[in-house]
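Morning. Coffee machine broken again, so started the prediction first thing and wrote up yesterday's gels while waiting. Chain of 98 residues, entered below exactly as on the submission form.
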Amino acid sequence: MLHGWNIMIDRWSMDFYNINCRRKEGAMRTLSYDPLWKKLIDLKLSKTELAERAGISRGIITRMGKGEMVTLDAVVKICNALDCDVIDVISICPEEES
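Came back before lunch.
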């Protein structure tokens, strides 16, 4: 549990996870990769360099650029490559109407 939020991970397919963050009251939140893009700018790294450094495909970076879900394994590889935490790669966006 992160600050009163439960993170529920439902297997969506073999390659993707559908990650929904819900408050106990049921309000839905979405995830953003904006912290990752800001970190890449700060480190002066390209998306291609990130993919090579993390050992992931450019397709994963492309999906992230479109705001699509990727595996938690890919996120962990990115965190390891950049020596950072998940919070430096993903943020929880404001509530959306369910």
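The first strand starts at residue 5 and ends at 11. Going to sketch it on the whiteboard this afternoon.
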